[in-house]
């Protein structure tokens, strides 16, 4: 086992299991534009910490500003928290479970280009089901994802130890 394999195994051991989703704002590739009901779209989504928002838009006409609730409600774009705008296909990660507010400046907020999302904490990890089929009967073994991670880490550690000291 070479040094690259050992390095790859070590990196795999450090991976933290967190699921995240990419939400295309407005439901399409280039839907950050007027005449899209962003409130209706957001009400049909479930946002968790770690998820990403994708904004597709014409950057010569629109922008994306993260604002506070008051600025969101009044469409005030001069005291924003963060300018998400980069190139017209921009992403924003929802890091904390809390409400987030976004508007388009340049007067478009007043035409409905604003988005409010309520971010929830990550749900608990799901359990992994591993089927066990003995010769006589069929059973199912449920392994908690933390136990699965511990088992996988132990196996990887044994392989690394073997590679370092017995090859």
From TrEMBL:
Keyword Signal included in the entry's annotation: yes
Listed GO MF terms: electron transfer activity
Phytocyanin domain sequence ranges: 21-121
Superkingdom assignment: Eukaryota
Keywords attached to this entry: Disulfide bond, Glycoprotein, Signal
GO cellular component entries: plasma membrane
Lineage: Eukaryota, Viridiplantae, Streptophyta, Embryophyta, Tracheophyta
The UniProt record lists the keyword rRNA processing: no
Function: May act as a carbohydrate transporter.
Protein name from the UniProt record: Phytocyanin domain-containing protein
Signal sequence range: 1-20
Annotated family: Belongs to the early nodulin-like (ENODL) family.
